[in-house]
Amino acid sequence: MAILIREANQILTMKRGIGIIRKGSVLIERGIIRRLGRFRISSKGLRVIDARNCVICPGFVDSHTHLVFAGYREKEFALRIKGMDYETIARKGGGIAYTVKHTQRATVNQLFELARKRIERMIKQGTTTVEIKSGYGISKGAELKMLKVISRLKRESSLDIVATLLIHIPAKGVSRRKYLNLILEEIIPEVGKKRLAQFCDVFCDRIAFTRDESEKILSRAREFGLKLKIHADELTYTGGARLAARLGCVSADHLLYTRRADIYAMKKAKVVPTLLPGTSFFLQLDRKPDVRTFRQENIGVAIASDYNPGSCMLYAMPKIVALACLVYQMSVEEALLGATKYGARALAMEHKVGSLEVGRQADLVVLEVNNYQMIPYTFGEDIVKFTIKNGRIIYGKDN
Ligand SMILES: [Zn+2]
After folding, report:
1. CA atoms of 115 and 290, how far apart (whole Å)
2. How far is the CA of 64 from the centre of ligand 1 (A)?
3. Which residues bind 4-imidazolone-5-propanoate per the record (predicted)?
4. Three-class secondary structure of residue 59 per DSSP
5. Measured in angstroms, how far is the CA atom of residue 352 from the centroid of ligand 1?
6. Is residue 89 scored above 90 in pLDDT?
């Protein structure tokens, strides 16, 4: 049935800035936005949603998550609060290694069930497009298992899901050279040939892969037609962002230690900077990305949840928007664009999702707030009233 969402206080189209239309309506037919703006039509035969006192915005695009995993790390959280840092915990066999152990042991069905429930909860928070990384498998078999889980989520979920092969940390008990060889000669070729992922990502940092190793990994992935991402300059300066510019990565993510010259290089190469404020908050990091330079250079910045069991257990994008404002001092407009339009750009999907216009697939959320500044401000509330994906209501509070 066609849907008419009537008289929203504000519609944020994300065209030319956040592109506000006041007192606008949206008509959705066969999954597509047919009309958008101020118009009046008969509601006969239509499913009508009254959006007075509401804001409509594009469905949130969460362009960086690790949502397939087994092995929660609440014990590590408690240690961290007492003062033990993330890297010390990692060296003691906690951290990523703990999740790897549990993810390796879990079956496809167990991982699928865990992830499916997480996606259900994300939908209630307005996410309509989500990127999901592998990376807790490490062994070839377990990485492929994770990607199989993501493929099944893609088939069975109503969301647009983007699969990324993440080369996360070196394997334990194998020489670095041998493991790198396995990645370059077996894992990447198999994932590429079977098209199990659209992106390849690498954790380029002092507890993971060096810049040279990262370059080898990403270059190999590109040979197999994978688009590229990188976890760059998160724990220390590695030059990962500079590498992203050189290789033409679609996005470079985290960027806490990225230098100004590297930001210029990213701009030139059109690499989308992706910031993860939930992680800074969850890990209580003092270091902040250089938001001011991104702003001065007029670079569109994506924000994402980084949802994962170690460094950010938050997947709710309206709250990530709030944290982008509170932790990174992004403006409300920058944060909202980051969670929609630029998130889509970070997935090379800007043509399809992340903004609202006539003729596009109808991915949008109706929020129970009467203006957009309320979105981060009402931080503690669950403000999503309806989530609509491809013109279908996939979540709704009673109208
Ligand atoms: Zn990540």
Report:
1. 33
2. 6
3. 73, 136, 168, 234, 311
4. coil
5. 24
6. no
Please indicate if the annotation marks 42 as binding a ligand: no
SS3 236: coil
Compute the distance from residue 66 Cα to the ligand 1 centre, in Å.
6
Residue 181 annotated as binding? no
Please report, as a single letter, which amino acid is at residue 353. Answer: V
Decide if pLDDT at 399 tops 60.
Answer: no
SS3 for 293?
helix
Q: How far is the CA of 168 from the centre of ligand 1 (A)?
A: 9
Is 113 assigned a ligand-binding role in the annotation?
no
Short-list 196, 225, 206, 228, CA closest to 215: 228
Q: Running DSSP on this structure, what letter comes out for residue 48?
A: E
**pLDDT given for residue 91 in this prediction:** 76
pLDDT per residue as tens digits for the range 228-286: 999 999 999 999 999 999 999 999 999 999 999 999 999 999 999 999 999 999 999 99
Find the mean pLDDT for residues 217-235: 97
120 is in an annotated binding site: no
User: How many angstroms does the Cα of residue 207 sit away from the middle of ligand 1?
Assistant: 14
Compute how many other C-beta atoms are within 10 angstroms of the C-beta atom of residue 268.
9
Q: What's the rounded Cα separation, in Å, for the pair 181 and 21?
A: 54
Check the annotation: does 9 bind a ligand: no
| Positive or negative torsion for Cα 31, 133, 205, 326 | positive
- Tokens 């250089």 map to which residue? 290
pLDDT at 16 over 60: yes
Band of pLDDT at residue 179, cut at 50, 70 and 90: very high
All structural domains of the chain: 3-59+355-396 (2.30.40.10), 60-345 (3.20.20.140)
